[in-house]
Recover the amino acids of this structure.
């Protein structure tokens, strides 16, 4: 199983970005996927997650109202739409899939929000 995260970049405060996470090496989509981030000099933190059924997603307080997670099982992809970005959203963003009690991480994508 491999996860590839991409879509990061440099954006001005108030702007938007969409991150993508593509899962390969797995024939079934029955797994949950989460987004995490690691700001400079800080520990990795939870941002958002979605179950394989695409039910009610989970958000960190910092992401509520600004970020939206959704998935397209036909593409084995999970997306994180980020709006109203703030400088404090600057971080390396990682996606993680939990498959049969094992966690698989993507390589991370850098998001930089300038003020």
């Amino acid at each position: 199983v491999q996860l590839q995260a991409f879509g990061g970049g440099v954006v001005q405060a108030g702007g938007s970005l969409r991150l993508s996470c593509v899962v390969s090496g797995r024939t079934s989509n029955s797994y949950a996927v989460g987004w995490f981030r690691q700001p400079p000099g800080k520990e990795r933190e939870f941002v958002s997650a979605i179950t394989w059924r695409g039910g009610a997603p989970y958000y960190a307080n910092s992401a509520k109202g600004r970020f939206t997670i959704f998935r397209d099982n036909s593409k084995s992809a999970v997306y994180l739409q980020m709006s109203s970005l703030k400088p404090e959203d600057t971080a390396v963003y990682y996606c993680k899939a939990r498959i049969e009690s094992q966690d698989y991480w993507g390589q991370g994508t850098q998001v930089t929000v300038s003020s």
